[in-house]
Design brief:
A: mainly beta; four-stranded antiparallel β-sheet; about 10% helix; globular; B: alpha+beta; five-stranded antiparallel β-sheet; disordered N terminus; disordered C terminus
Chain lengths: ~950, ~230
């Protein structure tokens, strides 16, 4: 019976959670990305549209349309665990793309037209740092650091495998004359082994003497192996087995070329070497990248593109793209030339641009893609500025003086303004309606209703004025990326409203705990103070001096307000809860590694103290710091080892958002008593895992006093561990080795007494009379978890939902009612009346609860939730390989009319009724009169 | 003799389980420090520890605290099971004075390891007397003490020991058991329901009967009426 009720309840709830077919894409959007390319191949076909095939730093293979830049198809391959390992390498022929991925372990063949996997083969169990692949008309040759494998193109098993000796650190193929050669450099070896590779046989044909120190500085150019070292260049001729040294008198930064020419780039010039390594030309100037195509050499710098003839070095075409301040230096360029030159420029900011150069005429940027959005570090959602009428209303109530006449005049002015705006808007709408009427020849009633509806929706659309809407649902999403680009996105459709690059010397900050790179983003002044512009800041370090830099900007326009260089490295940075009275700015507090404390912006009158958690990662000593804000002194107030041993690795430390709202203080029990939540704003959760003993420990510690409110551990647990810390609870996920499954746990804290012990403010220095009651529960979750987050609403009244990003590309919304520590084992009749759900060991996964329905998003790294103006609604942005934004209503749309609510029909019926009743009244009176006369 | 030996070994186990934490306090960030006392932790039969605080019996503890009433009161702890490690905790001298020198030591342990120790003023005493919970905006205000506060005497205190718990695992066993139980109960219930057919389904039969009765009651009249015409 209970199960039946449970199922019924579930179907009811999930039915209300799911969206209808016509709501697809209405409240949500998705942005698909491919990542920062490290290799681009032009794929020109006779029929169909031209494409470019990219392999990217994020190990994604994709095909983009050359004309529009849209993704034709995309295959997400295994991500490298070590960034120094080789990315996906690929080669292609007429119909197929051949790749080595998964750190040199798998060979996969994809069909070019649609990216369908044709076949795959596991080359090796172990990972390999290097890999290369080459094809002939019938065969595929693959190498990694251990072997060379030979395949036939249409068979998915190798026809021959040749094992390489140990210690290979370089292995590449060279297409030389009519044979394929393989070059191998081993560790501590003075020679390069050349193997001739054919389907029948692999044998060492010769070895070239020569000491190669730095294999990163070796390239296969044409049929030669070219290595460089400061200003000297060594060219190993593979065919003859000879080597030749030349001095270029330049500090070489990049080499490249084809079978005829060798291009050497230095900081100040580019040299072209022709046959027999004779210098053809020298082009002076600072260029960042070059590419060869037919007889052209294309050079690109920050603001300039130059096309040079390879034969003589003459400049054929030169163009300035834009003012060089706004442009970013290119990282790589790829060119293809038929009649015009098509150039793909990949900037240092991971922006892909397609430029068509008509020699002698012009260069046009055809399209661009912002691929740095794949590496988002931090997200904030900012309210849009108040609209004019809202500002007027704010002004009216802002006034301090209470002169009746002036207040009256002000009121009249405001209302005239409102009428004026209303009139303008209605006229605009009327025009829109007439426009739709004139464009459509259908004149049925349904057409009329449809057009009215459409015009109503366009007034709420993306092209409207950039101001806050009625329910504050449209926001501006600020995003900081690890490539050093800050974006402002419109939450209505995901359009990029503004962007800026943080500069050449950008380097993200590194977290000491997780070792991850971060680019922290803080909103210092929201748009709530409408007289003042908002202010947001990002903090990063200079890659050269490693000093901290703070860039603050206006979040609405993306205008940079200031750029301040700090005098030292940054240790910690945090937003102060204190506010500067005159500017309404929350200052940043910056702890430097030299012990200095800085505020940004500088604040004069600051009082009180700030407590911080300090973790010495190596010694596993955790302590509390008290920072006297006025005197800028740091004092250790508590320290302990938190029971962490040397093998324990702290995975994550999470406090609570300082502006989180908790609406209800307690939870009503079934016996009508209230159990009060233990809401300690100073509580931080620490999760640590011991990989040797497989013990996961979760510690809840009060940062101010150092009191461990609760600590618990579980054996046979492994990562990935994710957790969210909110209100009075902590939800976590881990892999259970014992059950071989993912499990979700929840810890809830309640006051042990009947009344809240600390009513107004929480004071960590005074303990609660009794230790808080800890309630815990765990559930089986039949899916992996990649990221975890929790919904946020305006007042914190709506039941929260936990958002789980799954490896399959879905985001699962689990209500807190289900992931709850207080679900009873025995459900009595009274509990059933209260809709309490009994304990079931598994969290059900229903497809209706996937907030991104069929819009899969991969490799989710984080989910950001922000409140909208409506209490029921939470705005959610999930980011990873793709971006996905949607509105979430964790408890249903209780304060919103249904999407299909027919305003027009209802108003029509109402007016018809009123008119009808009036007519009927007249009619009745006339009838009555007539009856009396008769 | 055997019995005696057993007792001896048992007692040594008992004593080995004993565990002390030495405390010293300072009112000037450990420029000078004095002993505060020791916390003795003793293992219960159920494996948990209970702690008791033995004061150093320093007579002018209260007076020292009163002299430095606006200062930070720091306590340093050394556990006998973790040589070389120091644990630090601080409170405010004023809070201790308000709670009549009564301490609450919150000791958090993991097996025989001390995780952290936190010194609190006694919650009952301090909570009653705090009219103005410490305002973070005005921390420079000097310590206000009630008129009846005690400044003489040695420190006293209680110890709360919290040990590291165990995180739960999904409770499949009891759930399956409950489902089984329910199933069994249902089967039993179905078998046990040996009421008569009428007693069980009267609610379905009654309307049918009523309908038949009513239609019978109406129809004869109609027939009669028809006959008259």
């Amino acid at each position: 019976m209970t199960r039946l009720i449970w199922l019924l309840w579930l179907t009811l709830i999930s039915g209300s959670l799911a969206i209808f077919e016509d709501q697809v894409g209405k409240l949500d959007w998705r942005k698909e990305l491919v990542g920062c390319p490290n290799n681009v191949v032009f794929d020109k076909v006779e029929r169909g549209s031209d494409r470019i095939i990219l392999t990217t730093d994020e190990d994604i293979l994709s095909a983009l349309s050359l004309n529009t830049g849209e993704i034709a198809w995309r295959r997400i391959l295994e991500k490298r665990t070590n960034p120094s390992y080789t990315p996906v390498v690929s080669t292609s022929d007429q119909d197929y793309i051949y790749t080595v991925s998964d750190e040199g372990r798998s060979i996969r063949v994809f069909r070019k037209a649609d990216g369908v996997l044709n076949w795959q083969y596991l080359l090796d169990e172990e990972k390999s740092e290097i890999a290369d692949i080459i094809t002939t008309s019938t065969n595929i040759f693959v190498t990694n650091s251990r072997k060379i494998a030979i395949f036939e193109k249409n068979r998915e098993t190798p026809i021959g495998v040749h094992n390489l000796p140990a210690g290979v650190r370089f292995s590449k193929f060279v297409r030389s004359a009519d044979e394929i050669l393989n070059l191998v450099i081993r560790e501590n070896s003075q020679s390069i082994d050349v193997r001739s590779v054919s389907p029948e046989n692999v044998e060492v044909v010769r070895s070239i003497q020569g000491n190669v120190k730095n294999i990163e500085k070796c390239e296969i150019v044409g049929e030669n192996l070219v290595c460089y070292h400061s200003d000297s260049l060594t060219v190993f001729n593979v065919q003859s087995g000879t080597s030749k040294d030349i001095s270029t008198a330049l500090t070489i930064t990049q080499i490249g070329g084809n079978s005829k020419y060798l291009i050497v780039r230095s900081q100040s010039s580019v040299k072209i070497y022709g046959e027999n390594l004779l210098e053809v030309a020298k082009i002076d100037g600072k260029y960042d990248a070059f590419s060869l195509s037919n007889d052209y050499l294309i050079l690109a710098s920050k603001g300039e593109i130059r096309v040079v003839s390879l034969q003589n070095g003459n400049v054929l075409f030169k163009t300035n793209l834009a003012s060089s301040e706004t442009r970013v230096s290119p990282r790589r360029i790829y060119a293809s030339s038929t009649k015009d030159i098509e150039l793909i420029v990949i900037g240092e900011d991971c922006k892909i641009e397609m430029i068509v150069i008509e020699i002698g005429k012009q260069a046009i940027i055809e399209w661009k893609r912002e691929e740095s959005l794949m590496r988002i570090s931090a997200v904030e959602m900012v309210d849009l500025p108040l609209s004019e009428s809202q500002q007027l209303i704010e002004d009216e109530f802002d006034e301090q003086q209470h002169n009746i006449i002036s207040a009256f005049i002000r009121r009249i002015v405001v209302q005239i303004g409102q009428i004026r705006r209303w009139a303008i808007r209605s006229v605009e709408q009327l025009f829109a309606i007439t426009a739709t009427f004139s464009s459509k020849n259908g004149n049925g009633f349904s057409d009329f209703v449809k057009s009215v509806k459409q015009s109503a929706s366009t007034s709420f659309s993306k092209d409207g004025p950039f101001e806050r809407d009625l329910f504050n649902i449209r926001k501006l999403i600020i995003v900081s990326t690890l490539d050093g680009v800050i974006f402002g996105l419109d939450s209505a459709g995901g359009d990029i409203l503004w962007r800026f690059y943080l500069g050449e010397n950008f380097s993200p900050l590194k977290s000491e705990i997780s070792g991850n790179s971060q680019l922290p983003l803080f909103v210092q002044r929201t748009t709530a103070h409408y007289q003042l512009n908002g202010q947001a800041s990002v903090i990063f370090s200079d890659s050269v001096t490693s000093n901290g830099i703070i860039v603050s900007f206006n979040p609405i326009t993306g205008e940079i307000v200031s750029r301040e260089v700090l005098g030292g490295k940054i240790k910690r940075v945090s937003l102060l809860p204190n506010i500067d009275k005159s500017t309404h700015v929350h200052p940043l507090i910056i702890l430097q590694t030299n012990g200095a404390i800085k505020y940004f912006p500088e604040i004069e009158e600051v009082q009180g103290s700030l407590h911080m958690l300090d973790v010495e990662k190596d010694n596993r000593i955790v302590g509390g710091l008290k920072i006297n804000l006025a005197k800028k002194t740091i004092k250790k107030v508590w320290s302990g080892n938190l029971g962490l041993s040397q093998n324990d690795q702290i995975i994550a430390i999470k406090g609570k958002p300082y502006n989180q709202k908790v609406h209800s203080q307690g939870r009503v029990l079934i016996d009508r008593n209230v159990q009060y939540k233990y809401i300690n704003p100073n509580l931080a959760a620490i999760a640590a895992i011991n990989p040797t003993s497989q013990i996961l420990t979760i510690i809840l510690v009060d940062v101010v006093s150092g009191q461990i409110v609760h600590s618990a551990s579980i054996g046979k647990a492994a990562g990935p561990v994710h957790f969210v810390h909110s209100e009075n609870w902590l939800a976590y996920s881990y892999w259970s080795e014992k059950g071989r499954r993912t499990e979700l746990g929840i810890i809830e804290l309640y006051e042990s007494s009947d009344s809240p012990s600390q009513k107004e403010t929480f004071n960590s220095l005074i303990p609660t009379e009794h230790a808080p009651v800890v309630m815990t529960q765990a559930y089986i979750y039949a899916n992996g978890v990649e990221a975890m987050s929790v919904s946020e609403t305006e007042q914190g009244l709506t039941t929260r939902s936990i958002l789980l990003a799954l490896p399959c590309g879905n985001i699962h919304e689990v209500s807190k009612r289900i992931l709850d520590a207080t679900r009873p084992f025995e459900v009595t009749q009274a509990m059933r009346e209260e809709m309490i759900i009994g304990y079931m060991p598994e969290i059900p996964i229903a497809t209706e609860e996937m907030i991104n329905y069929n819009q899969t998003i991969h490799r989710v790294r984080g989910i950001k939730a922000a409140p909208a103006g409506l209490e029921s609604t939470s705005l959610v942005l999930a980011y990873g390989t793709d971006l996905f934004f949607t509105r979430l209503t964790p408890s249903g749309t209780f304060d919103i009319l249904k999407d299909d609510f027919d305003h027009v029909l209802i108003s029509l019926v109402l007016t018809a009724l009123v008119v009808g009743s009036y007519v009927a009244k007249r009619w009745a009176r006339a009838n009555a009169l007539a009856a009396q006369w008769a | 003799m055997k019995c005696c030996l057993l007792f001896l070994t048992f007692s040594t186990i008992c004593f080995a389980a004993d565990w002390t934490i030495n405390l010293e306090y300072s009112l000037n960030d450990f420029s000078t420090s004095s002993p505060l006392g020791t916390i003795e932790l003793r293992r219960n039969y159920d494996g948990n520890y209970t702690g008791s605080f033995k004061s150093s019996q320093e007579k002018d503890f209260g007076k020292k605290l009163l002299e430095a009433k606006d200062q930070t009161y720091s306590v340093r702890a050394k556990s006998s099971t973790q040589p070389g490690q120091e644990f630090l905790t601080t409170s405010k001298a004023c809070l201790l004075l308000r709670s009549n020198l009564f301490h609450l030591f919150w000791v958090s342990t993991n097996g025989q390891q001390l995780q952290t120790i936190t010194v609190f003023p006694d919650p009952v005493a301090s909570q009653n007397q705090i009219e103005d919970p410490e305002n973070p905006q005005a921390p420079s205000k000097t310590c206000q003490l009630p008129s009846n506060h005690v400044t003489s005497g040695a420190p006293s205190g209680t110890v709360t020991v919290s040990t590291r718990g165990v995180l739960p695992t999904p409770d499949t066993a009891s759930f399956v058991q409950r489902i089984e139980q329910e199933k069994r109960a249902k089967q039993h219930g179905a078998d046990a329901d040996n009421r008569s057919f009428l007693a069980k389904y009267w609610m379905y039969i009654l309307p049918v009967v009523l309908f038949a009765f009513l239609s019978n009651a109406v129809n004869p009249e109609n027939q009669e009426g028809g006959g008259q015409q």
